[in-house]
Amino acid sequence: MEEAAAGAGEEEVYCAVGKEQWNWKANLRWVLANFPGRRLVLAHVHRPPHRINMMGAWVPVSQVGAAMVAACRKWEEDEASEALDQLLRICKAHRV
Question: At the top level of its lineage, which domain of life is listed (predicted)?
Fold first, then answer.
């Protein structure tokens, strides 16, 4: 289905991205430089943490209060959202 939507002759290039910029920025720039004009499909997987860092110690979420877990997950979502916003800015700069 997606191949038909992509158009005839247009190949898709997949690029995995994460929340850590240093991890995906170079990969994205390489893909944009080496596959110009191709349809770019970005894959970002967010897994909620099973442990939370509290004052230097990693504590299982089952041992932390619901409010703390919610606050940490909100912070993680905000970080991922900021990373995806930067990703979109890079793609727009390359007119993708």
Answer: Eukaryota
